[in-house]
């Protein structure tokens, strides 16, 4: 694995763990960090032995957002830099070929909140909290927040969070539906690890296709989505995992998926 400076990246038993590793700055995002995230995601795409990913933060917070001391120099094309750096990293997480579990410890703020929303399944420590924070500094939400958050919790709740900067605690995030589970702080990584291990044993191609279908559903008609489901299953049914899954079901045994 690469010698990263701003993240930790380890792989064990088919599960990769990507840890934002700037705890002295509450893991605030920098250009360098996000390029390293891109590199780590590229390693995952290239390594078929990796079958699930846990994304988390080092220290007492998940991510405090973008590091305002690490902004592009005056005259820089901010849109181009943001798309090349931040978008490519977050999109790589959203479209990863493996399931992505986000283990949220402490605060997820601003772009850190957006980064968390890019994952598939969010598990939060009981002390975790979520805050948009952008309007506090006179900016609009970015890094995908205006796309991802309304899809997760609806327009009204999203606008309340974005316009007021009111924090949302982990237990309420579960009630609102964008966090799947809230656990004691000491149990966070164990819970994420158990889920990752379970998913890593699954038919990872089918899992990725499931996510793609769910993500595309909002833009499709019911008929289009219905047809797309059939098309994807038509492609998958000739795969080893689909054949193994059917055989295991009929033989009443545990399937041995290969991904």
Question: What labels would you give this structure?
Answer:
three-stranded mixed beta sheet, globular, single chain, 2-enoyl-CoA Hydratase, Chain A, domain 1, 9 strands, alpha/beta, 2 domains, six-stranded mixed beta sheet
Please characterize this protein's 3D structure.
- With about 260 residues, the protein is an alpha/beta fold.
- It folds into two domains: about 5-200, 2-enoyl-CoA Hydratase, Chain A, domain 1; about 205-250.
- The protein has ten helices and nine strands.
- It has helices spanning about 30-45, 80-95, 110-115, 145-155, 155-165, 170-175, 190-200, 205-215, 220-235, 240-250, and strands at about 5-10, 15-20, 50-55, 100-105, 105-110, 120-125, 130, 170, 180-185.
- The chain has a six-stranded mixed beta sheet with strand order 1-2-3-4-6-9, sandwiched between helices. It has a three-stranded mixed beta sheet with strand order 5-7-8.
- Strand 3, helix 2 and strand 4 (about 100-105) form a beta-alpha-beta unit.
- It is globular and about 60 Å long.
Low-confidence stretches: none
Termini distance?
A: 22 Å
At the fourth CATH level, what is the homologous superfamily of the largest domain? 2-enoyl-CoA Hydratase, Chain A, domain 1
What characterizes the major β-sheet? 6 strands, mixed
Looking at the overall shape, the CATH architecture of the largest domain is Alpha-Beta Complex
| Global outline | globular
Summarize the structure.
By secondary structure, this protein is α/β, with parallel strands linked by helices. It has 10 helices and 9 strands.
